[in-house]
Specification:
82% of the residues lie in helices and 0% in strands. With 77 residues, the chain is mostly helical. The chain is globular, with a radius of gyration of 12 Å.
Length: 77
Amino acid sequence: PYLHMGLHIAVLEQLSTDRPAGIVQAYQRLIAQTADEHKAQHMMVDCLAEQLWLAQQNQQPPSETAYLNALQRLTEK
């Protein structure tokens, strides 16, 4: 539960600073698509967790571009 809540906090921090740039717009698109802020946040948490895992596996810093692209793909479905 700590990791899950930590990811929620990370998403809320990202939204409060719009970093990476464009994340607020991605969040708004997800809310429009799902009509549920909590579900939209869960979708973002899943993308963030995957990007952090990939960064760890590749021994590189997380890619903001890849993260935003993953969020964009969610609204294309």
